[in-house]
């Protein structure tokens, strides 16, 4: 037999899952969210998504001098995630700058996929936020209007319900669940977000600890420290859960594989930390919403968390026991 | 198929491909014209040859022996003439001293020396002596001398013997067939072990993808309240020693410890069978069941073969390796050793020969770790493979030790699951060997 045999270290078989297939799964998970945002905000949502996804992919391909613009799919994920946290009124060229910044400043300067410290999409959002704060939201939008499909944009944008009590009381739970409220493209519909997250759970790409830690903390803090401004204490906790960007953040941003802890205990700590910071900003900060910065701060702490939560090996005895 | 809940934390679900051979009865192979018998087929001290070229030997005659306690003698597996005593290629990848025997075609056996074959009348010491004399080692693949495990120190009382019939390694079906075809001998082997150790409980752990084996073994133990068959969820590596003990006996082997530390001795079902035959028939370990399988082989089979048979000859018997063969593995695809050529002998620990076609495996370049932590979630011994491998890659052995490199069981789950195709197990194995080496030097 003249054929040469391959000699390599075991195992000799591999799972069919690849980095690219995981990224494609994330894109699939974002599909319901993207779809709902097009329903809610019309062609502008589609335009912003197309711009951010395309710009992110092209920027990465140019930076890496790679011909295949889809590559491992991570740039498309970053682009789409960025669009999800942009307000529908944002000028298209700002979205473009945000995508370039997300890829370069958020990811490639660290050495590319896997080496970045911060969630690239949130870096993009943060940069836009500090550069053009007024276009990115804040509390300057006109009051919320009822959703009408095909209505002009001004009619469906408004201040995030978190802005003040008056805005909050103007929306109902059913609005928060369907997404029929003011907010960024992908953060308004609880239903679509949860549907997409189910796909990621079923594929085991995300673990329950980060979302449960995050959402649990938000609910508990909202209930006990929210002041009960939204029809009582419990429903105020629920309101904090459903309004603003917490759901999208907890299920799609905080769970970003690269920038969240790898240890099981670490994931829980990370989720709780995100929840605490988010609520501190919401309750005591100058901004109505704190999801972006909560996650970015916890991203920075991720290596430290991993370091302090190394699990005990199987059968390892507690020291001193 | 009943789904059992008994399982450990972590693990992976590779495709099993057991259907290639699961329904094929074990076929005895004619003794070959020539056998090559390595002096080292076990963990421990190598044997010294007891014969020289020109000597004539009978089947079952002892031809290699060592004074060391942790060792196992080797026996002639065909009758005929010794033609060489020289280093020969070994499945471990090394050149190891081996005895070559040209068969005389007679297949004449040495008469067993023992007189009493009723094991219940034998003393534990006599049984242990027979097991050692028969050269029995762990037949699941690790090849640890069987008598050593059956002689625990006095301060480690054993109350449970666990037989491993999980056969969690993909493709392999040798243990599965043994359980179906010789359940009585397996149970005898287990009872013998219980007697030697004075243990009151015997458990046979079988993965639930072998429903027929579960049924047969359950029938076989009927009326013996001290024995139990445990149905385990099909999940790799369910048959790993520490996992199996935790799942079946509910005890956690301490890190760096041995099963005997928790009162357990653990043996493969094939080993139990070999023990039964050694004790009740005086038969040394001269043959074993080998699964020859994989998409690269024309006619997969479960074969009963003499130890020392050339792997190449067995492959010929199964129709030869196909044109598109890419890998020849001794063992299964998760923990087996890939070989550069088939000119190596079947040894005591050879449970399978897996021949993978080009389509059945891929050689892909590793990309950056995306910290998905799938390796962390799949690691059955709770390590952080990504950080361990990173430390090893940078030669940071002390850091690797801090991340418990020594506790790695080398099951391969981390490499299997890694979407970035990083060779995590390989790096960790390297670090583990280095860590253990340094510990010995300290």
Order of helices and strands of chain B: EEEEEEEEHHEHHEHEHEHEEHEEEHHHHH
Q: Based on Cα principal axes, name the global outline of chain A.
A: globular
Derived from helix and strand composition plus strand pairing, the structural class of chain B reads alpha/beta
Strand order of the largest sheet of chain B: 1-14-13-17-15-16
**How many separate structural domains of chain B?**
2
Account of the 3D structure:
The complex is a heterodimer of chains A (321) and B (442). Helices cover 57% and strands 0% of the residues of chain A. Chain A is mainly α and 321 residues long. Chain A has one domain (19-306): Ammonium transporter fold. Mean pLDDT of chain A is 87; it is low at 138-158. Chain B has 442 residues and is an alpha/beta fold. Chain B has 2 domains: 1-30 and 116-363, NADH-ubiquinone oxidoreductase 51kDa subunit (Rossmann fold, 3-Layer(aba) Sandwich), CATH 3.40.50; 374-441, no CATH class. Helices cover 27% and strands 20% of the residues of chain B. Chain B has a 6-stranded mixed beta sheet with strand order 1-14-13-17-15-16, with helices on both faces. Chain B has a 4-stranded antiparallel beta sheet with strand order 2-8-7-4, with no helix packed on it. In chain B, a hairpin with a 5-residue loop joins strand 7 (80-89) and strand 8. In chain B, helix 3 (174-181) runs parallel beside helix 5 (211-220) and helix 4 crosses helix 7. Chain B is globular, with a radius of gyration of 21 Å. Classes of the chains: A mainly alpha (321), B alpha/beta (442). Chains A and B meet through helix 1 of A and strand 15, strand 16, helix 9, helix 12 and helix 13 of B.
């Amino acid at each position: 037999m003249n054929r040469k045999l391959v000699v390599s270290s075991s195992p000799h078989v591999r799972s069919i899952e690849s980095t690219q297939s995981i990224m494609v799964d994330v894109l699939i998970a974002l599909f319901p969210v993207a779809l709902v945002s097009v329903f809610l905000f019309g062609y502008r949502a589609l335009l912003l998504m197309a711009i951010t996804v395309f710009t992110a992919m092209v920027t990465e391909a140019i930076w890496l001098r790679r011909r295949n613009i889809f590559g491992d799919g991570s740039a498309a994920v970053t682009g789409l995630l960025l669009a999800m946290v942009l307000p529908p009124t944002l000028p298209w060229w700002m979205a473009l700058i945000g995508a370039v910044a997300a890829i370069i400043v958020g990811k490639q300067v660290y050495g590319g996929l896997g080496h970045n410290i911060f969630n690239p999409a949130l870096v993009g959002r943060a940069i836009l936020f500090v550069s053009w704060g007024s276009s990115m939201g804040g509390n300057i939008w006109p009051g919320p209007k009822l959703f009408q499909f095909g209505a002009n944009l001004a009619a469906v944008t408004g201040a995030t319900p978190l802005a003040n009590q008056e805005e909050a009381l103007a929306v109902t739970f059913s609005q928060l669940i369907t997404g029929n409220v003011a907010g960024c493209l992908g953060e308004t519909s609880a239903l679509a977000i949860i549907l997409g997250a189910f796909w990621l759970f079923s594929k085991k790409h995300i673990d329950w600890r980060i979302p449960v830690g995050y959402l649990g903390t938000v609910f508990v803090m909202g209930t006990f420290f929210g002041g009960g401004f939204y029809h009582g204490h419990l429903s105020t906790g629920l309101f904090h859960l459903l309004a603003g960007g917490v759901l999208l953040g907890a299920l799609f941003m905080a769970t970003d594989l690269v920038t969240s802890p790898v240890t099981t205990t670490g994931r829980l700590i990370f989720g709780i930390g995100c929840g605490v910071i988010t609520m501190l900003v919401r309750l005591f900060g100058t901004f109505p919403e704190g999801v972006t910065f909560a996650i970015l701060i916890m991203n920075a702490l991720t290596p430290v968390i991993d370091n302090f939560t190394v699990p005990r090996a199987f059968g390892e005895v507690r020291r001193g026991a | 198929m009943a789904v059992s809940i008994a399982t450990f934390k972590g693990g992976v679900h590779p495709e099993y491909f057991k259907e290639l051979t699961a329904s094929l009865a074990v076929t005895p192979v004619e003794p070959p014209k020539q056998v090559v018998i390595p002096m080292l087929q076990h963990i421990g001290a190598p044997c010294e040859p007891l014969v020289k070229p020109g000597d004539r030997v009978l089947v079952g005659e002892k031809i290699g022996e060592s004074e060391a306690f942790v060792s196992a003698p080797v026996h002639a597996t065909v009758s005929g003439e010794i033609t060489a005593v020289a280093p020969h290629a070994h499945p471990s990848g090394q050149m190891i001293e081996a005895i070559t025997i040209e068969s005389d075609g007679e297949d004449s056996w040495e008469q067993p020396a023992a007189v009493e074959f009723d094991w219940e009348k034998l003393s534990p010491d006599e049984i242990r002596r027979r097991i050692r004399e028969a050269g029995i080692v762990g037949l699941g693949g690790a090849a640890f001398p069987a008598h050593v495990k059956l002689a625990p120190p006095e301060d480690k009382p054993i109350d449970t013997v666990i037989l491993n019939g999980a056969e969690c390694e993909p493709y392999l079906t040798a243990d599965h067939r043994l359980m179906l075809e010789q359940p009585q001998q397996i149970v005898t082997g287990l009872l013998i072990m219980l007697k030697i150790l004075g243990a009151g409980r015997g458990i046979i752990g079988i993965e639930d993808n072998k429903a027929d084996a579960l049924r047969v073994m359950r029938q076989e133990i009927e009326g013996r309240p001290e024995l139990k068959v445990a149905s385990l969820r099909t999940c790799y590596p369910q048959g790993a020693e520490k996992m199996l003990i935790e799942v079946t006996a509910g005890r956690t082997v301490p890190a760096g410890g041995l099963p005997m530390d928790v009162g357990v001795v653990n043996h493969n079902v094939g080993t139990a069978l070999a023990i039964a035959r050694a004790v009740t028939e005086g038969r040394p370990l001269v043959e074993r069941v080998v699964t020859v399988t994989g998409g690269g082989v024309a006619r997969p089979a479960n074969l009963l073969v003499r130890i020392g048979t050339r792997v190449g000859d067995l492959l010929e018997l199964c129709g030869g390796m196909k044109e598109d063969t890419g890998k020849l593995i001794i063992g299964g695809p998760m923990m087996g050793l890939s070989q550069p050529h088939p000119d190596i002998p079947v040894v005591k620990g050879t449970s399978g020969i897996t021949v993978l076609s080009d389509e059945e495996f891929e050689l892909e370049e590793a990309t950056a770790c995306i910290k998905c932590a799938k390796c962390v979630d799949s690691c059955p011994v709770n390590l952080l493979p990504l950080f361990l491998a990173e430390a090893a890659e940078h030669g940071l052995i002390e850091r690797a030790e801090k991340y418990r490199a020594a506790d790695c069981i080398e099951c391969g789950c981390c490499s299997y699951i890694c979407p970035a195709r990083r060779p995590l197990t390989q790096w960790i194995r390297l670090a583990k060997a280095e860590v253990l080496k340094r510990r010995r030097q300290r």
